[in-house]
Amino acid sequence: MNLKLWDIPAVDKVKTVELAKKCGVEPLLAALLRARGMDTPEKVSGFLGAGEFSDPFNMKDMDRASSRIRLAVDNFEHIAVYGDYDMDGLSSTSMLYTYLQDKGANVSYYIPRRDIEGYGMNMGAVDTLSKEGVDLIVTVDNGVAANKEIAYAKSLGMDVVVTDHHQPQGALPDAPLVNPHREDDESGLTYLCGAGVVLKLLMALEGDIEAVAKRYIDLAALGTVGDSVELIGENRLIVSRGLESMEKRERPGLAALLGEDPVTSTKLSFGVIPCLNSPGRIGTPDSTVRLLTHQDRESARILAEDIQEENLARKEMMDRVIEAAQEALENRPELMYDRVLVVWGEGWHHGLVGLVAGRLSELYGKPAIVLSVIDGEARGSGRSIEGFDIFRAVTECGDLLIHHGGHPMAAGLTLSPENLEEFRRRINRYAREESPEMPFPVLGLDCTLQGRALALESCRAFAPMEPFGVGNPTPAFAVMGATLTDIRGFGRGNHCELTCRSGSASFKCKLFKVRPEEIPYPLGSVLDLAVNLEENHYRGSVSLSVQVRDMRLSGLDRLECLRDYRTYEKFKRGEPLLPREAERLRPDRDRLAAVYTLLPRAKGPGLGLEELVLRLEKSGLNMGMLLFGLEVLKERGLIDYRVRGNMLEAWRLPVKGRADITLSPLFRELSGLAEKDGQEKE
Hints:
This protein is of the alpha/beta class and about 675 residues long.
């Protein structure tokens, strides 16, 4: 079950109107800016202003790096750009490779295979480059931790220049190193991604900031959006100018993917970048670099079609792995009640496990780690929720691991399959000790809107805040008290279009990756909706697109529901309960009867858990009691049921005579856990 808490800041209408007048902007834009901490004209001007690029030589070692590369170009040395298989590394490779080609350099590129070589430099790749006669390796988006590989390359007669944006781990490599995270770098550009660092390198090499920006800013924007770095400072400048550049459709390969609609950071994030990332996930990443560096429009179009087909295959593969992962959780329900989900399977594609972990984390509202077992090795990736450092949690299990790395919200790891169960046990023990009460998933919203304000004018009011991304998310609004009047499927029934009424206004909104039968609310339900607004361009016409991020029943206390559900999970894990926690789970006969009478006599459409709780509140029943009560009824042979997400499939079974629920072992187990807790406290 995944119920998010909503964080909606209060709006000071008087101060919002004052700011709007002082800055000459729409009140909605002023409200959004204030919600994000820009509450003075000076802050607003600084945020909405264009800004400018700083001197690239402010970065430590930029002089050494650019001098060595210029020398290699002048002497026609063989230069190899050593990249990475994700969007940041692919765009960085494309930028530097194209620039050096334009300068007449003897240049090639090397991108390691995700499924075979993994991230970063490796000894085998260094050997390959040496055999190819490479004189200088220039890393992009990697290299800061490749001390051994760089030393080995130098022993084979190759020089190395490192450009990277990842945190240094211990001693720096013995090579010119351009990385804003090194302690002696005073540029203040720690927010740059790998492509941003390469853009600065090209500016240093060329000596003309504007000329480089004009030629390469679109590729730098791809890397910046794709790497989910914060859109502040020069990142904001890179993306805003990059979007303007992309509108010109001057890069054939990118133009083939963009189509004719206006280019936005959202379009890049959810359309173009996943497509460009697909070869690096399930195929050969070189095809993305070929597309981004291609000059012939017709061949670029053909290559783009191939990559789009590969992306469709990636989506289908991902759906199968998500389904397999959910089945693995359902087949072993104890896994689902862990604080940190750890699930694995044979032969799942290594390039997809991170995406699947993100999807499971979203579905279940908790950190998730997904691993694939191939050739006697388990490799995986984890995604977290705000407030729980998954990298630290993985690191605490380091003695079980072969490799690991990451940051608070994501981690990668490799271990032997025989250690999987122990790893699952240990990381959950750490989670229990470090976060006895795991953080709840929270959805941050900017403000509330009335139904009549769901209009194109609202989209255009906040357009000056573009580009959107990390640190400046697409505005999200709460529409309170809307009545659900219709549900229809689209896209082969895999998505929903909802019709709602708010006051005198009726509006349609879309809910992606949810089938109509998975909507946990019946028609007529009064809902609060969390939505994004977008302009939709189709065949020359412009319309409003309202996309649902989340929805909840109006009047239901979600925080209480979540707390009760966490108590139920605690019971399922067999952990001691406080007496008051046990009471929150223990229904009496009348409450169980109330649950039983609401269930259908035969298997049919699912019921929404929130809807049931709201209907049973008058009986004193909460979410924990509902779930515990369902178990008791099933144990006594009265019902059968399954919970998936926020939906309950439950139905009554034929029963002869009366079943005495007071004989349920579950009640004794619940009492035992509460007594155990009391004894431990004594």
